[in-house]
C-alpha cells in the first residue's frame, strides 16, 4: 500500500515537491507567508481525506487555548475539535514525511533551524471559528513556522471558513484564504495574527507547527 502510494502515482515526484517547496521558501523569504492553492500532492491529499473521513468522531476533542496549566477550552475564542497526528497510520506517516521534507528544504535554503514538527487534524463544525490569535509570541522561541492544509472538496465561495492573515499589528488584512481541497498556507508563527471566519459547513484541515530545539519546557504541552 505504502509502496504503491510512493511509487505508483508520481504525485510525490521529487521534482514537483522541489518546485513547491521553492515557491513556499521564496514567499517566506519575501513576505513571511505563502498560499499555495490546491498544491498538496494529490495522492497525499486523498490519503488524508480518506483518514479524516474514516475517523470515529470520538477521536476528535474540543480544542483549547493556552498550554499546560493554562490550557482551557473557551468556545468564545475557538470552536473546533482536534486530533493529533502520529506516524502510526499510512496517511499520518505520509503527511509527516512530507512535512519533514518541507522542514529540510526550509532549513537548507532559509537557515531556519527548524527542529521538530507537531500537527493535528481539525474539524470546525457549522458555525465553527477561531478568533484572531497568534501561534507564537516573540522571544518564546517555540513555534516558528505554521503550516495549514485544507481537506474540503467542493468548497464554494459562500461556505465561509476563510483563514484571514493580518499584519503584525493585527489591524490590516493581508490575505484571505479559502479552505479549498489541497490548499497549503505557510506563515511565520510569531509575525502574523490570524483568524478563521465562521464556517457555514463542516470544515476539515491540518494545522502544524515547526519548532526550534530547546524551547522552554515550562510552556510545552
Ligand atoms: O484552520 C485554519 O485555517 C487555521 C487554524 C489555526 O490558526 C490554528 O489552529 O492555530
Ligand atoms: Fe493559528
Please give the CATH class: Mainly Beta
Q: Which outline best applies? A: globular
Q: Within the CATH hierarchy, at the fold level, what is the topology?
A: Jelly Rolls
| Major β-sheet strand ordering | 1-9-6-11-4-3-2
Q: Evaluate the radius of gyration.
A: 17 Å
Count of extended strands: 11
Protein architecture, described:
By secondary structure, this protein is of the alpha+beta class. The protein has one domain: Jelly Rolls, CATH 2.60.120. 26% of the residues lie in helices and 26% in strands. The chain contains four helices and eleven strands. It has helices spanning 2-8, 14-30, 42-54, 90-110, and strands at residues 33-36, 61-62, 81-84, 116-124, 130-133, 143-150, 163-166, 173-177, 184-188, 194-196, 203-211. It has a seven-stranded antiparallel sheet with strand order 1-9-6-11-4-3-2, with helices on one face. Strands 5-10-7-8 form a four-stranded antiparallel sheet, with no helix packed on it. A hairpin with a 6-residue loop joins β7 and β8 (173-177). α3 (42-54) crosses α4 (90-110). Mean pLDDT is 88; it is low at 1-11. It binds 2-oxoglutaric acid (AKG) and fe (ii) ion (FE2). The site of fe (ii) ion has 3 residues, from loops.
Please sum up the structure shown:
This protein is an alpha+beta fold and 221 residues long. It has helices at 2-8, 14-30, 42-54, 90-110; strands at residues 33-36, 61-62, 81-84, 116-124, 130-133, 143-150, 163-166, 173-177, 184-188, 194-196, 203-211. It is globular.
Amino acid at each position: 500500500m505504502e509502496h504503491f502510494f510512493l511509487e505508483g502515482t508520481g504525485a510525490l515526484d521529487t521534482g514537483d515537491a522541489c518546485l513547491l517547496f521553492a515557491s513556499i521558501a521564496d514567499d517566506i523569504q519575501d513576505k513571511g507567508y505563502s498560499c499555495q492553492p490546491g498544491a498538496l500532492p494529490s495522492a497525499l491529499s486523498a490519503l488524508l481525506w480518506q483518514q479524516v473521513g474514516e475517523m470515529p468522531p470520538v477521536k476528535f476533542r474540543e480544542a483549547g487555548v493556552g498550554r499546560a496549566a493554562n490550557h482551557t477550552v473557551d468556545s468564545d475564542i475557538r470552536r473546533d475539535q482536534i486530533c493529533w497526528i502520529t506516524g502510526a497510520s499510512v496517511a499520518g506517516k505520509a503527511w509527516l514525511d512530507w512535512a519533514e521534507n518541507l522542514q529540510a528544504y526550509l532549513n537548507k535554503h532559509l537557515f531556519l533551524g527548524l527542529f521538530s514538527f507537531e500537527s493535528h487534524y481539525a474539524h470546525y463544525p457549522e458555525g465553527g471559528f477561531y478568533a484572531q490569535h497568534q501561534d507564537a509570541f516573540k522571544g518564546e522561541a517555540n513555534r516558528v513556522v505554521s503550516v495549514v492544509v485544507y481537506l474540503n472538496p467542493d468548497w464554494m465561495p459562500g461556505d465561509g471558513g476563510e483563514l484571514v492573515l493580518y499584519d503584525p499589528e493585527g489591524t490590516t488584512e493581508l490575505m484571505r484564504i479559502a479552505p479549498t481541497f489541497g490548499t497549503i498556507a505557510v506563515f511565520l508563527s510569531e509575525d502574523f495574527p490570524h483568524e478563521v471566519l465562521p464556517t457555514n459547513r463542516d470544515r476539515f484541515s491540518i494545522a502544524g507547527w515547526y519548532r526550534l530545539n530547546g524551547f522552554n519546557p515550562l510552556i510545552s504541552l
